[in-house]
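tmp note - Serine hydrolase
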Amino acid sequence: MQVKNVVGMVVFCAVLAACGGKGAPAPADTLNDKVERFRLASGVPGLAVVVVDGDHIDVATSGVQKAGAPALIGRDDRFQMGSLTKAMTASLIARLVEQHKLRWDSTLAELFPAWRDKMRPEYLGVTVAQLLRHRAGLVRDFSDDDAVGLQQVVTGDPLQDRTAMGLWFLQKPPQSAPGSTMLYSNIGYLIAGLIAESVGHAPYEQLLAQEVLQPLQMQGAFGLPEDAGGQTPVGHISTAQGWQAARFNPAMQDETQFRLWLFAVSAAGGLDLSAPDYGRFLLEQLHGLQGRSTYLTQADFQLMHTPVDGYAFGWGISDVPKYGTVSYHTGTAGTYFTASLLVPSQNRAVAVMCNCESADAEAKISEFANTLAAAVPPK
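out:
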């Protein structure tokens, strides 16, 4: 059961470097124009795009909420963000660190003393920072056997259920020696979310709302946007007949397994956001790196964008010619896809959100995001 919540490292920044030096577009070529042309050329069902330029947030939408239906994508429609949730989980952890409820170097042995004799000894010294940088050695995702076993321990109590899930995976052998290498793991962020629940004494979703969404004047939800009912975007998968609305990731055996996975790894990839709300998060990241934020200290913002082996706290990091250090990530839970990047040297950030997922769509959307990020000449 491998769910493709990914960073998209190599092509993502290589394309940005290739875009450098093209200069600014003609004034009449608005963001709406670009988004509409791209959607028509790519054939994706619906898009929402946010561009942060300086202190300005610009949003454009194009296409439909559901293939074959007339309702258009709206400015405030939410999209499933997949692994872009990870940077928000890191922000939640940073808030708890600044409240002195834990440290970046707090270990699992310190944080879960009752588990000292239950978890694998290799995990005892794993730190919070290692979890957020994917250096804990944990498996990437559930196996089908994990899903079957975990269905037997679910009670309906969020704190109890995710605690049981966390211990389940800490009793499995590591995939690599903790601290030795970057091994992308949604399960590592499950544990990070569990740490937040343990020191914050509330479910992860409540803590994220309290420490991330509300302070940044954002509104979000968990699950899938279409779960809300009414007119919302619907996720799609690519078929021989074209885009088909899909209720869950086709990599899963059934919707029950998908829902279990999505609940368990809520801190890794469960959040739904609109383009304007995600734009507020990107803007705060820029402000924080510039020392212009009161949300977190500049030192913690910089730490969250400082990589080990190319990965920081919920961000892939790369040095791009002419653009300097760029933070980026992509995210999908199988029926939506978003590409995001932050270019501090240009005081610019971009995200392209689609209610669809396929390898072809991912490549086109990532390239479009880079093109938008390079729409101003490098300084």
